[in-house]
């Protein structure tokens, strides 16, 4: 540490002095700002300033899935600072940089102030602002006409992240309307992890890892500290894990790139992109072979470890034989590139430093290699081998509170007929039986196949109307330009975007959503294990004439009447939330005052007591089936039994992603990996200038994108740091500067996602409006879909790089 | 009188930069924008600096969050020709923007490079001015003066006023800068270094503790704890 010289500071940190030389001695003249230009930190003067009349309002963040409790400082009706709510059990008073920067979202000049209607050709940018009454009437007329014509099922609702009751509201609205087409963005990120948890533990959810009490954490993927679902809880927990020797736990990060997680880990394990599953099975091989697994847990609480006979008398392969026969270390080394000695050592450390957890990747792009379901199952199986299921320091299942039951309603014949139709994305069809959504499929199903390519599947029926909520498929889906084409083909597109994002630009009508700081709502507390709810409420008067999409859906339901009005009898989203939360037995005033409520009893409960057992312990309330962890998935066996005699389909196993060893390796020698940075908000498509100024910490890159290349590979290519290059895949190319980075698998390249948005605003001196900030790597991704589960299969994508 | 100091545990710092952003929101440093940022003129009183070492696959990276070190023996003060920068009786190094003539001797003298010069009048897109912190101490600085971290001096003033309004004596734990309050890894500690019982003085005495460029004799009041 002491090696850092003053020169380093000059080189890396500031450039004030360098710039100063150019202007030499600046003049002493200066103009005070009109606004508040009083002398500031003067000797004594300002210290006597009277306190301002301020209030602190508690609400809940919505910029990433953590959903932290916030306290917002409000002065003169303006929100001026955000802190964490100390009573929220996940963030416990801290607030990450995205939450801090949320003020820039609230007051962003990029926000759309009121509804607008496309007047000319779609995508041309001819807009007319209209009133909410006019806008709602337009949508209601269109929806009711389609419904009357028996076309209810041709209405599609694409959505991204939803908070609290919103997902249920969307589903209820569409079900009552009569469309099966609620299509979630989950298939781009979390669907594989959720499904793997369901197939092994019987619970459809993202596992919660009790890192506070873990001694050994092995995270697959580089996301844990940047973009995992409960990131803020994990940051605090890992800090706690590092409370000093001898208690200090070990964190190991497995990822092709030395991400922030890898940097802060105790050990980084570089691995060939897309091969996590093989490494997990190799680790299992060592743990089983050396007898280091938790025999009691495996015997009493797992299914399918040893070979077994089913009811029909057929012999099936168990997990033990699978890993011993098929994943010897030399094979795993050749697949993953991780030396066999390292695999053996890591396996030994993992099995002997309990409680140990293996964390599956959950963030966007973490699991999207075409083998993601079995990869997630393979990683999760490690937790079962060392008995880390439902124990302190292991894997927990998130509990949710029991809320008031939704009122009964009866679908009419139109709704019944509509719901019986096939989904537009093909989820639940014979090809994708386990899929809940296949977001990336929509464009290909709506459009004819490109010339020369085979049609993926025929469009079951033309889509007549499409809604976009927290979803921007032209930007966020692989090869989004196909989505732009698809949107042009749909006669009526409505977006709830807050800014004129890439997809909203192709909409007929934009019903701008209010930001989370202006609306009522609720948020399930996740990442703690126990159940809880955090309240969201307006901290300031709405800045613009925008509405909460929840309110808009309820208004539409009332206007459409019939089963919709029966299913959704509330006048506002606030009323709906109040109704749902009415079942929670809590002092209302206290709830309002604290902003959060949770079943904190676990915190104070003695190990082994009933309250403790509700969260931890194998007598847990919602254990699946017989409470056993499926190493051999009985669910998959039941789903696939017809005609499938291959046991591998039911066991975690590894297939090399098609892109890693496909024939176009000669043309496209590099493997593109992407991974969300902590500086990127997950549900806001506009520019937040302060996050841009903190954007690429590891590269010291602000307001831009870059491509990271291993220096040896760059030398072979003849490119240097800062060179502008084209990164090109089979479907597109983008131009970015090069950054040489030692922390990268030799033939992998990395681009940060989240950039490439056009901004209409002039941000800061000397900058221009109407420019694109950085480049969007999603444009390079070749859209593929994993069989069975519908998860996007896009990573790693093969690219080549050449000088611009 | 307290002697305010900070301890940053590099083992718990996950380089998330929440401190950087919290500082900007609290202290009204302006939006630099792509052009000024590319010239290295983004004003961030609390930057996190990356240091990469080694070759693949043995690469290490160290991140150092860098607020003003609030030296007990600050070189910046000695070079100021107009006595605009000074250390107050509680050890916080401050700048009187009204006296500052913008000569930038202090920016050069500071071995930690924490002082930022306002080449231009700070700018925000009009709409974003709504969220500026209205505390008078952090009113946007004029063109031509130097600015830097103040340990959120406005928070100290407000904490004292709050204690007075509540009719109780001010306690050093009533006051933390914005970066300390928001730190996601709970890696930052703040308090009175003169109080031997305070957490910061205990941590500052830890064998893991060090200060930046200690050999220069600047006596910084920001301590770092080595990574595990």
Index terms:
heterodimer, A: 804 residues, alpha/beta, N-terminal domain of TfIIb, Rossmann fold, Dimethylsulfoxide Reductase, domain 2, 4 domains, seven-stranded mixed β-sheet, B: 228 residues, alpha+beta, Alpha-Beta Plaits, two-stranded antiparallel sheet, globular
Looking at the overall shape, the CATH architecture of the largest domain in chain A is: 3-Layer(aba) Sandwich
Apparent shape of chain A: globular
Order of helices and strands of chain B: EHHEEHEEHEEHHEHEE
Approximately how much beta-strand content do the residues of chain A carry?
15-25%
Low-confidence residue ranges of chain B: none
Please provide a written account of the structure.
The complex is a heterodimer of chains A (804) and B (228). Chain A is 29% helix and 15% strand. By secondary structure, chain A is α/β, with parallel strands linked by helices. Chain A folds into four domains: 53-109 and 525-547 and 585-619, ADC-like domains (N-terminal domain of TfIIb, Single Sheet); 116-190 and 411-513 and 549-582, 3-Layer(aba) Sandwich (Rossmann fold), CATH 3.40.50.740; 206-396 and 621-650, Dimethylsulfoxide Reductase, domain 2 (3-Layer(aba) Sandwich); 663-803, Barwin-like endoglucanases, CATH 2.40.40.20. In chain A, a hairpin with an 8-residue loop joins strand 1 (54-60) and strand 2. Chain A is globular. Chain B is an alpha+beta fold and 228 residues long. In chain B, strand 2 and strand 3 (58-66) form a beta hairpin. The two termini of chain B are 34 Å apart. At the A-B interface, helix 1, helix 2, strand 3, helix 4 and helix 8 of A face helix 1, helix 2, strand 2, strand 3 and strand 6 of B.
